[in-house]
Automatic annotation (TrEMBL):
InterPro entries to which the protein is assigned, alphabetical: Bac_surfAg_D15
Signal among keywords: yes
Species annotation: Photobacterium profundum (strain SS9)
Top-rank taxon, per record: Bacteria
Keywords for this protein: Membrane, Signal
GO CC annotation, single: outer membrane
Compartments it resides in: Membrane
Name of the protein in its database record: Bacterial surface antigen (D15) domain-containing protein
Stored Pfam families: Omp85
Amino acid sequence: MENTFVLHCLKKLSLTFLTLSVFATQQTYASEYIVEKINHHNQKQSSWVVLPYIFSSDSMGLTTGAVGIFDGYLQPQMTMVATVFVGEELDVTDEIDGNNKEERTAGAMFAVSGYKPPLTDRIFITMLGAYAYYPNQRLYLDGSNDSIRDLESNDPKSTSPLQTQGYSNWFEADFRYVLPWGESTDNALPIIQLDRGIAVNRDNSGGGTPFSTGQTILGTELFYSKWTADKFTEEPVINTNGVRFYLEHDNTDYPANPARGYRFNGQFSVDLGIGNSTQSWNAIELDYAHYIELDDFSWTRQNVIAFNVWSAYSPSWDKSESLHADGGVLDKHQTPMWEGARLGGWNRMRAYDSNRFNDKAALYGTVEYRVIPDFNPLRDNTWSPFPINWFQTVFYIEVGRVAEQYELDSLLTDMKYDVGFSLRALAANVPVRFEMAFGEEGSAMWVMLNQPF
């Protein structure tokens, strides 16, 4: 195996892992607001919960951890989340000397959402970060729509994915400005009253005229990521750092778990290739979600059909040229596999590994049927510090495709698909979800925070 080829291949690095992440790498809902619980058993509006978790996967082995969620502390609109996890020891092979050794998954992640700096009324800051080591990352060197998934081979010239140990470290700082439009004309932070996790003061909210109702946010996000593949002599690394600019409009009744209305988002991401960045790139993403509330059954509190359409395109990606003069699979100005037009993972195409498919363009759509039953064994949780306001069952179907160019004929042909179900709960005003999804390449299980859209 030629190290130069491996180095070039692994520049196209992606991580797939199964763990309870912290808000993923982006928030799934955008609005800034204050939650007021009208049925709380004491005077404190702040709440917290610590949840242990355990799962087993090929890439991490048997893994245990705990996540803490703290809502309404320091400032009423703030949410803080932190998790730590550790896995069992797994056998890994050193590519250089062929020796076997044992290593384990270990890491920590954090998120602070909705912090309002002093002397400001409309600026909010969100910060997220992670530091983690994985003994068996899956690196999709060829993530095109027709690439073949082969977990047996270890030849980077013909393997998708290549499996190796390495680090995944990232940090994001998000600065958001709530525009004085719609329901935030006079007050940047609307108050949403919840009765056991269901909004009760929002009968006239959700689905109004864009920008005249709802909340609109302008945002700037600074991001940094470093990914390593320690299996090889040259220890390939990919670094990216840059900035995102975005516009978000939320016209739903309750952004954390909408029952009606819509939201849309447009963003432009750019890495200028400065500092330790591997190379420059840019990408555009558009996202639209719509929610329709159905009549309740005698045994339900909420029935919702939720739709989501998302698309991405990288204008910079030049598929006719390679980054290195002697070739390799990394094209010039190509987005990293976890940016731009990518599918697979906890939010889009959930039956597939994270970043399983990646290319210059992508199109994705999903439908979810969400039901909150009246039954909740923790509804009168005065005896417990863990506020679980509702449980939700969800059934969904997803379709998506990546392509070399943004052409609808290609993007709507030979689309990947999956189906799945989910059990979700509202814990400390944050949705927690356990998901199972089934697709052409098998099944996947995810434990995650927040609704996928």
